[in-house]
Amino acid sequence: MDFFNVVVRFFQEGGPFMFPIALVLALGVAIAIERYIFLSGAKRTNKRAFAEIEPMLNASQYDSVVRMSERDNAPVTRVIGAGIARLKLSPRRDDVEYAMEEGLMETIPRLEQRTPYLGTLANIATLLGLLGTIIGLIAAFSAVANADPSEKASLLSQSISVAMNTTAFGLISAIPLLAFHAMLQTKTTEIVDSMEMAGVKCINLLMAKKSLSANTRASDE
């Protein structure tokens, strides 16, 4: 209860700039939670989807993979589905790789969506804190100029303490937002790397099957 009272008093003494900083913090936390849930879901669906696709590739059920990529929302299915669709038009490895890279480039923006906002919101929170402190100090010095000389020292120290609350709250808001930003970027990079690895596995498997098929036809002839 004492901690709650301290927080409320700290917020009240900070002045009007505490409210926009609190709004920035709330918005950043909401974005961080939404992105974490989305990326965690994408990671799970990718793992599940590739576990389903790999047996299809081993069985050369390419049409099934393409159909799955059309109905499944896992990012990795779109990447592999793009490569399989191109394989039907051109068996060259480079063409299949380009198609998968194109599918990956279409998927990455959805994974990175709104994450950069966290860095921007952290900067905004810091700047609002500094602005609140500057305006508070200006108001404090103006009040001290017209105050009784015996009260100037105590009034000035009290006013400065109150003005510094906004800077403290701005930093308190900015630090976790920057931490969330770094965490989500790392999580996004891991997902992208896993999709690239899945694409390479898929291409190697397709080319190995193609080479085996060609060797089988050559031996039959």
Automatic annotation (TrEMBL):
Q: What InterPro entries is this protein classified in? A: ExbB/TolQ_transport, MotA_ExbB_proton_chnl
Instruction: Pinpoint the MotA/TolQ/ExbB proton channel domain residues.
Output: 73-197
Location relative to the cell? Cell membrane; Membrane
The superkingdom listed in its UniProt entry is Bacteria
For whether the record's keyword set contains Transmembrane, the answer is: yes
Q: Which key words tag this protein in UniProt?
A: Cell membrane, Membrane, Protein transport, Transmembrane, Transmembrane helix, Transport
Membrane topology, as annotated, equals: Multi-pass membrane protein
Query: What transmembrane ranges does the database entry give?
Result: 17-38, 117-140, 160-180
Give the family, as the similarity comment puts it: Belongs to the exbB/tolQ family.
Q: What is this protein called?
A: MotA/TolQ/ExbB proton channel family protein
